[in-house]
Each structure stands twice: as C-alpha cells, then as structure tokens.
Amino acid sequence: MLEKTAIVIVTYRRNALLRVLFESLAGQTRAPAWIVVVDNDGEAGPLVDEIRPSLPETHIEYRHPDRNLGGAGGFSLGAEMAMALGAEWLWFMDDDVMLLPDADACVERWAAKHRVFIGRRQNCDGSEFFYQPRFNEFLAVPVPDFGFDFARADEFFTDVVSFEGCVVHRSIVETIGLPDARFFLSWDDIIYGWLAAHHTKVAIVSDFILRRTQDVPTIRFLGRHVAKPSHLYIFHFFKNRRIVREYFKAHGKYNPVGFRIGTLVLIGKELYRGAAAGELFVVSRLIARGLMSREVTP
Predict the structure, then answer these.
(1) Which terminus in the chain has less CB density within 10 A, N or C?
(2) CA distances from residue 60 to 12, 29, 32, 146, 223 in whole angstroms, order as listed
C-alpha cells in the first residue's frame, strides 16, 4: 500500500517541527512512494532539500504557492498534486506531528479494510488526544461521543475526519472532489469526512499512529484538557459557517432552525472557552467578526 501512497504535508513557518516529522518518516520500516510538501511561507525549501537523502526511496514534491493558501488550500493543492502523481492513497498530515514506531505497518493493515480512516493520536506528552466526534446533522455541528470505549472495539465509525493523519483512497477523492480551499482554516476536514461518509465507512481505528510535537496551550473544558484555539482559527471557524450551510443545503440536510441553534451552541462553547482562558472580550469580537464577514477566500 505504501508503495502507492503520497503523504501530503502542509507547513507554515515551522521548520523545526517539520524536521521532526521528516525524521520520523525516515525511521519507518517502509517508505511512501511520494511526499508532497505545500509550503505556505516558502522557508521550508532548503530543509526539504537537506532531508531528501534520508528518504532515498521516496520522491519528494515541493511547492511554494504564490500566496498563503491556509491549511485548507494547502491540502487541496497537495491532494491535487498527489492525484496527478498517480497516488492510490493520500495520507494527510500537519507539520506539527510525528509518526510513532510501526505507524507504516498500522496504516497498511487498516488500508486493507477501510477507504477512509484515521488512527488515534497522542499529545506531546504521550497522553491520548481525545478524538471521537460525530456530526449532529440537525445542528450541523460535530459533537464528541464520550460513550465509546476502544477497550470494547477496535474501530469507531464516524462521519468526521481530521487532516492531522487521515488516510483517504483515491476513489473517494475522485468521487467527492478535492478539499475545499475556500475554508482556508477550519471545517475543511470536518466537511470532507462528512462528504466521504456518504460513500463509504469512515473509521477512527484503535492503533496510535501519530504524536503531536507542539506543546499547545490547553484549557479545561467539560472535564477535559483541550487545546486553546488560536484567534485566527476562531475567526475562520465562524466565518466558515456560511460554507457549511451551502453544503448542507446542497445535500438536502439543512434545517434553518437546527442550524441556528447549532451556531448558538458553538458560540456558547467558544465564549465558555474564552472565559476560561481569560479572553472573553477578544473571543466575543472574533466570533462577531467571523459571523458578519462577507469576505470570500479564493
């Protein structure tokens, strides 16, 4: 499977983290056929050239677009490049993760069973990163399923993915298209998983495959420590609700009452997290700016 796989990485001004990711790739037993690096800033080119000899069996494609495409645009461009190279599998990764030992074997094992899946991840300190969401289509909001336990089953079926490690078969990309670059930041992978789930099972599998390498600030939310979102993320998260609405309308899933309630739920959640982080006023302004924005990201 890996001999037909392209790893798609989007990076932006984080060479030190990108180096750790490349080193973890070089430490795997088997190498992918391609690595596609989309560099939104342009500073990673020398690092990519330096790393090439450590991955002699892998062809590395590097692209620095003429503007910052954001995570969404970067993954869209990277997926397009991977498809043009002839990849049968696309393995999406942010630049702030590393592969755990035997990640290659885990991915090959699950690729024999699923066309879209993502492994479990660890936080920077090695603890489990909790990720078990499902879409509530009435609210158009992904909600966590706290009831599922990997001690009872080795896969969790969902309709949401993260581009921080998800693996997608070529046939799915051909069916649902490339990730939507308009999102720029946030919702792009959530919607991609939702679209994929209309055509195949989407699984979160029991194997731990990636570890986050950036020790991001956390706040306590609903009894758990969760990552504190950046201001840019909060703005785009609410700005992109209008694109989410477009998708739900196009697929006959839009309920105007439920969607508004869902937006209110999200506002309440972020205000709560903003208050917990001591940034209630700042977060309130970001939410308002996002919801009122008519800016179109190309």
Answers:
(1) C
(2) 17, 18, 10, 39, 42
